[in-house]
Amino acid sequence: MPNRPLTKYQDKIISHGASLLRPHYPLIDHFSDARIIAIDNGRSITLGEFFREVINLAANLPDRPYMVNLCENRYRFLAAFAAAVLKGQINLLPPSRAPRVLQQVTEHYPQLYSLVDGPDFPEGLDTIVRYDCSPRQTPRQDAYIPEIPGDRVVAIAFTSGSTGQPKAHVKTWLSFCESAKLIGAGLGLRPEQSASVIATVPPQHMYGLETSILLPLCLGGMALHSGKPFFPADIRAALELCPEPRILVTTPVHIRALIEAGEDLPEIELIVSATAPLSRDWAAKAEGLFRTRVLEIYGCTEAGSIASRRTSRDDMWHAFDGVRFQAKGGESWVDAHHLPGPVVLNDLIECCGARQFKLLGRNADLVNIAGKRTSLDALNHVLNEIDGVRDGVFFLPDGPEGTVRLIAFAVAPGKTKEQLLAELQARLDPVFLPRPLYLLDKLPRSETGKLPRQTLAEMAEQLSTI
């Protein structure tokens, strides 16, 4: 796959640094042999140890152009990601580990191999390589940190498929490095500031990749926790293993679970949330209960993380430095210094100047029934605010406008369908009431808390036959 030409990036200026985008970026910024880059099972790993492991791993990787990094341990994922960049390979980032998804990726990139760090691996893959950082030779003590060309393609990320079929998007080393710096500045992190990053989201996802992988590589002082805690007790244990200040990178689903569990968490400097809208009420509850700040990040696979807001206090999104938004004729797009050109968004926004906007919802989420309009996001908000509802989502099947009806799935122990419908009837126009409403024990959310449209369609079809 040819690299994207650097000329598209030349002469663009980073507003927060007032310097030209560089043609080369180091594999590891702010290198110091003794700096801690990871906490792995309670053990602190220095940058010197990490870099030697990356060199050994890169030497042991097969000579193939594409890697699917399936390492479960976040530290090993980081090392494998860096090793692939060092070796000139492209990291493929599938939207999930579902066998069908992996098989589709294999069909489009037949020269790929998959790297695993455990005994188990998903179906749908052919060439499996075990994580091996055993040295082939003694590394040189004067080894330098290599400079990577900014225009080198280092990853291909795929959309989640939440609004349709996953799509591939090429990522260069320049775009990753500059994006990490913008995120750090947007979160109020100082250059080379020390902090521990504990993430509940997988590193294969763009949000998890940017916050838990790229920040430690591109910002000095950041160290990641190697695990992927899921349950509230696991999150508390991971936080306790890491030194202060701590940053928890998570999702609204995990924030709500932590609040409902009433966990007594150690001190958290900042909670970062993304992948789904977070309500103001839940953000305020988290800030009060855990004595911290909650910042929500807005982004997409196409452009990466590009804006943030203090959800408990502000409905308005604020663009990161150098990022500009526009909306016209029912279409929204974003442009930034580190992007090769404007990126069309799947969301509808209301611009309040070039640096602030209100999020109106996804284009694909708009619902028009009997001449009345709303969005699936607004309907989901109403459903999830009902007392006793632990999780819920609306779904509009495909079909001619005016002939299909909304469907809702809810997790609400102790509630009947009749009770929930009565609650919805008091809050919604009758045309938006779900027919049918299904009560479930849990929703099949992905590791990032998303519910791809295809998953909801399959679930609706299965339940309709019961």
Task: Provide a compact summary of the structure.
The protein is of the alpha/beta class and 466 residues long.
**Strands, count:** 29
Backbone CA Rg: 22 Å
What share of residues are in beta strands? 25-35%
List segments where confidence is low: pLDDT < 50 over at least 5 consecutive residues: 1-20
Shape: globular
End-to-end Cα distance: 47 Å
- Helix tally equals 11
Average pLDDT reading: 86
What's the arrangement of strands in the largest beta sheet?
5-4-14-13-15-16-17-18-19-24-23
Query: Structural class, from helix and strand content?
Result: alpha/beta
- Level of helix content? 25-40%
> Largest beta sheet, briefly?
11 strands, mixed
List keywords for this structure.
466 residues; disordered N terminus; 11-stranded mixed sheet; 6-stranded mixed sheet; alpha/beta; globular
